[in-house]
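Quick one: structure for this chain?
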Amino acid sequence: MPEINIDLVAILDQISQVLEIAAVCFGAFMAAFSISLVVWTFRDIRARTHDVLFQALSILLVLVFNVLGLLLYLILRPKETLAERHERTLAEEALLQDIEERLACPSCGVRVRSDYLLCPACHTQLKRECEACGRLNELTWNLCPYCSHVHPPVEVQDTLAEENMSPETEQFFSRPSGHDQSAEPAQ
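Got it. Here's what it folds into:
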């Protein structure tokens, strides 16, 4: 019978040693997990704001309350990083610049490209060709920026002669909408 007690005590001693090793490993894991939560929070909050006070409070929140502090931090943190905010701002500026750079005919408002001499819709002259170098110049420029050739002043006018217009086109461009021909006095 004494042999059974000795074996039982030895088994209980081995079990307690294994439990101690498991407790130490679990404690080390929990310490590493807590440190990793703090490090992750530190990196995340630095990517989201430059406010030092908010960074310190976020790290302290996770350090003191551990996983619950991390959950609170995830609720309170800014929703976008500084890089995302910068990228969004650049995209907005690019869209605004694209909208501002779109050219339109001053007469009819149709979109035109920068290399058009005439508006394809109403035939208004948009640019002129330099007589010296052949490059396009704005109508308001009095000299060519490419070859410094001096231009005579140009009056902006419709370049499509009225005698070349069909009656329908002339009626469309010369009369306001709702204007009836029958309402004109006959002469």
